[in-house]
Amino acid sequence: MTDKTAPAITIVGLGPGSIHDLTLEARRVLVQAANDNQTVYFRTIIHPTVEPLKLDIPKLRIESFDRLYDESDDWSTLYQQIATEVCDLAQGQPVIYAVPGHPLVGETSVQLVLEMARTRGLTTRIVSGLSFIEPVCNLLALDPFEVGAQIVDATNLAFSHRDEVAGKIVPTIPLMIVQVYNRRLASEVKLALGECYPDEWPVKLVRAAGIGEEESVIEMPLYELDRNNFANHLSTLYVPPVGELAALRLPETLRYITMRLRREPDGCPWDRQQTHDSLKRYVIEETYEVVEALEENDMDKLAEELGDLLLQVYLHSEVARQADEFSIGDVYEHINAKLIRRHPHVFGDVEVQNAGQVVQNWEEIKKQERASAGVDVKNESVLDRVPQATPALMVAQEYQKRVVKTGFEFTSLQDVYAKLEEELEEIKRATSPDEQLEELGDVLFMVAKLGRFLKIDAEEALRQANRKFRLRFQAMESLAREEGRPLTSYSTPEWEALWARVKEQQA
């Protein structure tokens, strides 16, 4: 008879492979199931313990989920299917679910079963087993705690998006990838690891660890992982760590490099001399180089320039860390917390209908943040908080955008043209340098206003004009070289003719 007080789901660890590693408690549970004529559901029967168990406990009734491995095309749903079936079965009667190794070590399906059981109000019990880690580490002569090894399930790694892998794996510490159970999965694992490791990186495939003469360690370059049939249901992949300067796709490497550059006494003399103030010009320069790459739609250049800009973030953070001001962790914390806080429609329960509502919520949240920081928001100017280091045309249009909300605006485009003509007349009448400076500023301010009325970014318009001028003048330089003449030899009519010729060519 089945014990009515038994947990709805009992999860039994079968050990790494040898029946001699099966715990006494695990065997007792399986014997009791056989005596009660109760079916035991194995995640897989492709495991060395299974056949000896059938001989040891002849009446043991076994069913497995191996069919799902053959049917599944989606790694991300495979274990979810198993967990669902286990919990569905447990709704009607107590279920014993048997898994290789220890149920809580490298067993994603068990974690899903436990989570689903909690939501359904099903009780669970874990019967421990020797995990695969001990015999694998024995073969590798590796203490995973001493080296801080990562342990990752192959299936989880396989269905990770490629751009997420570098955030989940730190290649500068040892990595163990468990349950690389066939060639197809080995291929997916190889592709994922390619985000962090060189194709030629030496890896070790540990097979049948703890199973006597069957155990082996096969070393090969990463790119060969799926070019053979070595991977099987008892395979664990060991990936040795790369050097601190070799993991070029990780932010941790950039952090190490910036620390190393400023380290006393063997860092870089120039980098050690830099301060927040001396680095300001480079932040500005790198920002504009990013903008230039965007304008040129050059994605390779953009990736490079974003890296240069990111270096400035890390350099400032390292300068601050050495001065005990803040660290790169504070930078991450501020931006992550801010993004979560200002996107309650994504990370909370706020609902929005369109992008306009997002902007309204964003501004309101910013206002609440300033109030919490002690700012007198009631007496704030609408022109506050515009960085004065911003290019002047951008500041002008930002000021104009803000005051429009108060009603301070021209009523028509014709009024803008009239005001611009008025400012042009005033600069014509200006006689002193100070007057000319002031009036030219007024002209530029009205040009920015005209841009707003025409829905044109004045800064972008001027950059585009600069690019156009550069291309045309460089073309004239090329024509002059073809004619074998120095630029200074051209008369005004010749310049005009040359300019017209280039305009026609570039039209």
UniProtKB/TrEMBL annotation:
Residues 9-225 form the Tetrapyrrole methylase domain. GO terms for molecular function: methyltransferase activity; nucleoside triphosphate diphosphatase activity. It holds the Pfam family TP_methylase. It comes from the Bacteria. Residues 274-347 form the NTP pyrophosphohydrolase MazG-like domain. GO terms for biological process: dATP catabolic process; dGTP catabolic process; dTTP catabolic process; dUTP catabolic process; response to stress; TTP catabolic process; UTP catabolic process. Gene3D superfamilies: Cobalt-precorrin-4 Transmethylase, Domain 1, MazG-like. PANTHER family: NUCLEOSIDE TRIPHOSPHATE PYROPHOSPHOHYDROLASE (PTHR30522:SF0). This is Nucleoside triphosphate pyrophosphohydrolase. It comes from Dictyobacter kobayashii. The gene is yabN.
